[in-house]
Write a structure and sequence with these properties.
heterodimer; A: about 300 residues; mainly alpha; two-stranded antiparallel ribbon; 12 helices; globular; B: about 100 residues; about 0% strand; flat
Chain lengths: ~300, ~100
């Protein structure tokens, strides 16, 4: 049985994960899993199981708030969900025959590349958001056929931002690999989706964050059932974990639209660097036996 | 029909029901640490509501797109739903986890 102080610490911790996850459109497993294993001594598989359930919690609580605020692009989300669910399925099947270890290095490099793209595009994104300049592009055939576009009201600068989606085919393919990777490695679903939409598909960062938040629940729900069936979900941790992330996500989603997009980009850059380093460390450890500091 | 509305309602209903159940489990655990069976049962029900919500969300989106005659997106929603079910069944069959 968990002590009261433990319960409250745990609630606070998952609150923080839910909050950060809501601001950046990610699940927050990258925070919850290490915290559970290191601070509470929970076995890694059980920690992942709890984290997957909290991803569903944060996706529906954060997702509902962004849908209400009209930031989420539901049509774009459903389009990308087709490939991400197929990718997750293929990834889950691949787990049975190959090891995902070498993939850590590939995804680490991708994370560093996306981190660099995020930090290098801060000025441009701020300028484009402020001058509502996301419409000035040529759409590809698929984006045009599906009429993928959107708009949201940016509360930090007090005006509407409209955008056309581009590169839908590339987006669909990358989203397949995001699903595949998250099934093989158990992380990275949300992080890669936000960057994909923002950097390749001409979606403003806030809309990408809201849309990613909305999407991640779909693959996480399926994985969550499987973890339950396998008996890996420790019910004692569940209520505080889910409650904490839901509250954190509620506060995070209320704040996100008020923050200037430049700051969100910088937060995102820092997170991507951390994740890239973490994955590189794991990859090197598992493939070459090399240990980087703090891994 | 505005597609945001039904989807928002599904999500917020899932949030409120599971949130209340988890909060009851949490408070019960604090005030009555001996009642672990009830706490665990509540946590399980809360999780079931939580996990079920994204499935309902996809079904409702499918219905709403059909209602709007946006058949392209209805087909896409159907693909997502099928993939969710296929992954789940395959996961059980192959003991992926």
């Amino acid at each position: 049985m968990l002590e009261i102080t433990h319960q409250l610490t745990f609630l606070g911790l998952t609150f923080a994960a839910g909050f950060i996850g809501a601001l950046l459109g990610i699940g927050g497993g990258i925070i919850i899993v290490p915290a559970l294993t290191i601070m509470f001594g929970v076995p890694i598989k059980e920690a992942i199981a709890i984290s997957i359930v909290t991803v569903v919690a944060t996706s529906i609580s954060g997702g509902s708030s962004y849908v209400e605020q009209r930031i989420t692009n539901i049509r774009l989300a459903i389009f990308l969900e087709t490939s991400t669910t197929i990718g997750a399925f293929v990834g889950a099947m691949l787990v049975l025959v190959v090891s995902g270890n070498y993939l850590y290095v590939v995804f680490a490099l991708l994370a560093f590349y996306l981190a660099a793209s995020q930090i290098l595009s801060v000025k441009r994104e701020v300028k484009r958001t402020e001058s509502n300049d996301f419409m000035n592009i040529t759409q590809d055939r698929v984006s045009r056929y599906l009429n993928l576009r959107g708009e949201y009201f940016d509360a930090a600068i007090n005006h509407k931002v409209e955008y056309l989606v581009k590169n839908s085919i590339l987006g669909w393919i990358v989203s397949f690999f995001a699903g595949l990777g998250s099934a093989l490695l158990g992380v990275g679903g949300g992080i890669f989706k936000v960057s994909l939409m923002n950097i390749f598909m001409n979606v403003p960062l806030k809309a990408a964050v809201a849309t990613s938040k909305f999407m991640i629940g779909v693959t996480a729900a399926t994985s969550a059932i499987l973890y339950f069936v396998a008996g890996l979900v420790n019910l004692e941790y569940l209520a505080p974990a889910a409650l904490g992330t839901m509250l954190g996500a509620t506060v995070g989603t209320a704040l996100m639209n008020k923050i200037k997009v430049g700051w969100l980009k910088v937060f995102f850059f820092l997170l991507m660097c951390y994740i890239g380093y973490n994955m590189l460390g794991k990859g090197l450890l598992l493939t070459l036996g090399m240990r980087l500091p703090f891994i | 029909m505005d597609i945001n509305r039904p989807i928002y309602l599904v999500l917020i209903t899932g949030v409120i029901i599971s949130g209340v159940i988890f909060a009851s489990a949490f408070v019960l655990h604090l005030v009555m640490p001996s009642g672990m069976e009830v706490v665990n049962a509540l946590a399980l029900i809360g999780a079931a509501v939580l996990i079920f919500t994204p499935y309902v969300r996809v079904v409702v989106a499918l219905g709403a797109f059909c209602f709007n005659r946006e058949y392209k997106f209805a087909v896409l929603s159907l693909i997502v739903l099928v993939m969710m079910i296929v992954s789940f069944v395959a996961g059980l069959l192959f003991h992926i986890i």
